[in-house]
Amino acid sequence: MVCLLAAFADGRKNDAEREEVRRIVENLGPGASNDVAAPGRGMSALYQDVLLGRVTVEKAAAPLKRQEHRTLAYEMAVAVCDADGKAGPEEKSFLDKLRIALAIDEASAHATLHQADELVDFGLEPMPATGAVPRAASSGEGSARVDETEIDSSITRYAILNAAIELLPQGLATAAIVPLQMKMVYRIGTRYGYTLSAGHIKDFLATVGVGMTSQVLENYARKFLGGLGRRTLGRAAGAVADQATSSAFSFASTYALGHAAKAYYAGGRSLGAVDLKSIFTTQAQKARNLYSQHRGAIESQSAGLNAGKLLSMVRQGV
Description:
About 70% of the residues lie in helices and about 0% in strands. The chain is built from 18 helices and 2 strands. α10 (about 150-165) runs antiparallel to α11 (about 175-190) and α10 (about 150-165) runs antiparallel to α16. The longest helix has about 30 residues, at about 275-305.
């Protein structure tokens, strides 16, 4: 419930993003509501309560009695608020109320928000402030000089890294996934001769159907109801965890997004939303089948990651 409140804290979510959040909530499974809210309440009803303002921050925080649960809830909320850029005034106001309700000390809360903001800043660092501008090499003529094999390898590296991030125990690590995906799209676009802004890339993700806030929310749902939920709550995983782990989900979404971007920029940005979503769906299915093939590399990379190294990788863009 805390994450749902965070998802709508800015009050500016569009219809597509609200629908995606609703889909995620309804897919959590019947047992999930007992983990995050009052027993007996269906997830759809909880979603409506949050959307209509019938749930307060204090009510959402009340069931979280242990310090590790409160800390995790705050980290999740920060990551959700920062999913589409650094938290704005409304989101910061929400996070401050949440900090007080969860009894998180101010210094710890500030450090968490600062780390998340750094991930967002570095994720957007190389991108200019203006719109997407094609250079001379953006046409089919320029595309012939692009090494597509190298681009494919780069997409797989990003997918492996994002899958590895989801295996980390730190809840805030998930906040690095969207910035890394944006850098991946940025670098693919530049290979085909485009100079891209952060705004253009956000629009591209939305066109493909990858909501920034909803993706972070879904990553946390998968992680929490899977192994992380079992460790913190001592309960069996919900339906989402049975379908796919958060690691496999991040691998598939990153892989599919990369190949959709490759098709889009290689084709001179001529593909429409329907074609892009079709490519994304096809590539995501392919990635789900590839996950086991790369699992060893994913686990090995995760074992070598820590907060400092992760921040450095986001800054460098892999």
